[in-house]
Design goal:
The structure is a single chain. The protein is α/β, with parallel strands linked by helices and about 300 residues long. The protein folds into 2 domains: about 5-130 and about 290-300, Rossmann fold, CATH 3.40.50; about 130-285, Rossmann fold. The chain is built from 9 helices and 9 strands. The chain has helices at about 10-25, 50-60, 85-95, 105-110, 130-145, 160-170, 190-200, 235-240, 280-300; strands spanning about 40-45, 65-70, 95-100, 120-125, 150-155, 175-180, 205-210, 220-225, 260. It has a 5-stranded parallel β-sheet with strand order 7-6-5-8-9. Helix 1 packs across helix 5 (about 130-145) and helix 1 (about 10-25) packs across helix 9. The protein is globular, with a radius of gyration of 19 Å. The structure holds N-carbamoyl-L-aspartate. N-carbamoyl-L-aspartate binds near residues 123, 163, 263, 264 and 265.
Length: about 300
């Protein structure tokens, strides 16, 4: 049985194949509308979510399956003190596949060793978010036409931003990728990601405090929100939250075919005036999420 805890649980070939299936789903949705008849997806969200949970649920329903679950820990027996392991053990009897999000790093991994059905990590603390990364790769592949030969700027909270960690992990396996890491000093990419991923894969990267310094060279600009919920100190959050605000004016020096991405939710880091710029792809990105999650569910349930 396969779980998806870390994006590296999928090979590059498997990811490329899933993107192909997701594109086929976009073109021929009717072919897939009964693939999961009689299957149940459980969504166990111990942390808030809009896109991830709803796109998973929509994905399963569009495949003909059904969904159950909870969207906050307070409405489950976790509030009575139940362990994740016990919850997962039981939900496995009620469903065929589980997508779970948890504030603790590693919780989906622990869950997977107690589960009789496949577990998908839908975000664990400030650690990983592999299905957002599948969404991101689907977006890049669709909007740029390729996943190799790209200079990718990741901007904002690179310390706690789990989407960034998984994205760097995934993209480091493609050819001729360079990263520009844009963050305030306090929110730099953790050393373990630099040494275990960037250095290991011999990926060139540059670190900077400003968006402008490398903007003209970027093919992708991946903006992120400062992760308020991971801060110990409200003052630090307030000081850093509006550090970067992408505006139309700043974008004047960027490439004509730059692809601007954001996993959403956006707070202030992209001015709404940018939404009408044809290079803004973050809402398309959210749309791609459902199709790649449909392809993922099919893969994990071994449905051809
Ligand atoms: C991201 C997350 O949950 O990590 N959201 C998402 O799943 N699209 C990004 C974020 O919350 O900032």
């Amino acid at each position: 049985m396969k779980h998806l805890i870390d994006i590296k649980d999928l090979s590059v070939d498997e990811i490329d194949e899933m993107i192909k299936v997701a594109k086929d789903i976009i073109n021929h949705p009717e072919k897939y509308s009964h693939k999961c008849d009689n299957k149940i997806l459980a969504t166990l969200f111990f942390e808030p979510s809009t896109r991830t949970r709803l796109s998973f649920e929509s994905a399963m329903m569009r495949l003909g399956g059904k969904v159950l679950g909870f969207s906050e820990a307070n409405s489950s027996s976790v509030s009575k003190g139940e362990s994740v392991s016990d919850t997962i053990r039981v939900v496995g009897y009620y469903s065929d596949i589980i997508a779970m999000r948890h504030p603790k790093e590693g919780a989906p991994y622990v869950a997977s060793s107690n589960s009789i059905v496949p577990i998908i990590n839908a975000g664990d603390g400030g650690h990983n978010h592999p299905t957002q990364t599948l969404t991101d790769l689907m977006t890049i592949s669709s909007e740029k036409g390729h996943l190799d030969d790209l200079t990718i700027g990741v901007c904002g909270d690179l310390k706690f931003g789990r989407t960034v960690h998984s994205l760097i992990n995934a993209m480091s396996r493609y050819k001729n990728i360079k990263f520009v890491l844009i963050s305030p000093d306090e929110l730099k990419l953790p050393d373990y990601v630099k040494s275990n991923v960037l250095d290991k894969c011999k990926i060139k990267y540059y670190e900077t405090n400003t968006i402008e310094e490398y903007l003209p060279k970027l093919d992708i600009l991946y903006m992120t929100r400062v992760q308020k919920e991971r801060f110990f100190n409200e003052e630090d959050y307030k000081r850093l939250k509006d550090y970067y605000i992408l505006t139309k004016d700043k974008l004047k020096i960027a490439k004509k075919d730059l692809c601007i991405m954001h996993p959403l939710p956006r707070v202030n880091e992209i001015a709404t005036e940018v939404d009408s710029d044809p290079r803004a792809k973050y809402f398309e990105q959210a749309n791609y999420g459902r199709f790649i999650r449909m392809a993922l569910i099919l893969k994990m349930l071994n449905i051809k």
